[in-house]
Design a protein that fits this description.
This protein is an all-alpha fold and 72 residues long. It has a domain at 23-59. The protein has helices at residues 3-8, 25-34, 42-46, 51-61. The longest helix has 11 residues, at 51-61. The termini are far apart. The mean pLDDT is 79.
Amino acid sequence: MHRDARERMKGWVKPQTGAASAGTPEHKAWSRVHRASPGPERWRERSRTYEGVAAAMAAQWSAGFPLSMEAE
């Protein structure tokens, strides 16, 4: 957002990026995935879905659905 727009918006605060600080385990995990060198196994590392992310997606998208997929 440019300076003039920020001045017109009362109480505007720059959003936090949520980026991990360098050297932290989160940053190392991010670097391993996003800065991977080219190679035959790069696709495998970049397409991995972590358990916490998968659990959050399942909880969000399965709300209201029956737990069993069996026909009644």
